[in-house]
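Quick illustration, no need to memorize.
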Amino acid sequence: MPKKHGIFRKLGIDINVGLFLAKRELKRANKWTTSLIVFVMLLTFLNLVVVSGILVGLIQGSLDQNKKFSSGDIIISSFLNKEKIDNSQEVVSVVKNLPGLKAYSARYTAGGSLQAGYRDVLLKDEKPNSIGGQVSGIDPAKEDEVTNLSSLLVEGSYLELTDTDSIIVGSFWFRKYNKNEFPGLTTFDENVKLGSRLLLTINGSSKEYTLKGILKSKVNEVDGGIFILDSEFRKLAGRSDYNLNQIAISLVPGTNPLLIKEALIVAGVDKNGRVQTADEAIPQFLDQVKTTFGLLGNAISAIGLVVAAITIFIVIFVNAITRRRYIGILKGIGIAPRAIIISYIIQSLLYATIGATLGIIMVFAFLKPFFNANPIDFPFSDGILVATVNGTAVRTAILLMATIVAGFIPARIVIRQNTLSAILGR
């Protein structure tokens, strides 16, 4: 036990001496050189956090929009082997009484086709002016409370409860909005515009509707969708059982979706349909792309980390080489080699800490709010900067560890030189 106390006491003395030496060294250091090293560490930190954050943010932006304009916080849908949610009205009753409920939208969905110019006689090789997509029967007011669908209109106006003769359609199906973003997709010709009469067919039943509005977002379910009143959908599709296909649920901000999902499961809703949070409902390929982009960002960041480590290595090595006599004298008067090594490690850590601190301030005070307010406009999403406190803390720790190693190795190399040879400059 006394031996251990002696070891710790000696280590404490070496650390104190190392701090003293590091302080003297930094006071004598060239300010411009120090500033340049700190700037390199700042850029390295930003490379670690921002590059991967933007790559992941491209997909995260798409997921956030899907949640905002389509799925809500929680979505209940039919099982994969069934067409509808069983006992839908009982499920709706449970949803209405959920704690933290902000709004919900009950939807009927089915595949359908929409045809323009259906009364025209087609020539032998002429194709009909039609498209096929998912038709959704909605309560316009309830849907707007959950997904704010009316805000996505680029032409025309939103559905009202009296619009039994109207339809709104996603922008995928119009050439003026689908500018080679989806090559090969069949679209309406230029003659289809607001006020055009379109023939909607679901399950073999057809009815004419007037095009009232066009929706444009970066969510496939919206841009490729066809929307009519739920009452019209039931008539056209023969849904006399009132069984739904989807129930999108929006929660009061701050409510934990996982707790609400658990409440739905306890109420037995999972026996009638799939209960998923917005994150669980995302397509698997998007989740895989998000993971891949994260790995790609980490690989790019690792290159920057290596560059920073080499920079610190060179700075410390050159500093130690040029001060060999000084180091030799320190060793000659009894300063422990470990204390001298600690002084160089402290210098390296200081550079990295200042750079990382400036980087954290820049990311969370400026860059993240900026990208949230001004997302990067990509065809499939509004890209944001994804930077979490935990993720940033891990990257900061990695940067500091790399800096410790980069400061230790060159100091260790120089310190191992013979004391007399160092003093004499041999």
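The two ends are 43 Å apart (CA to CA).
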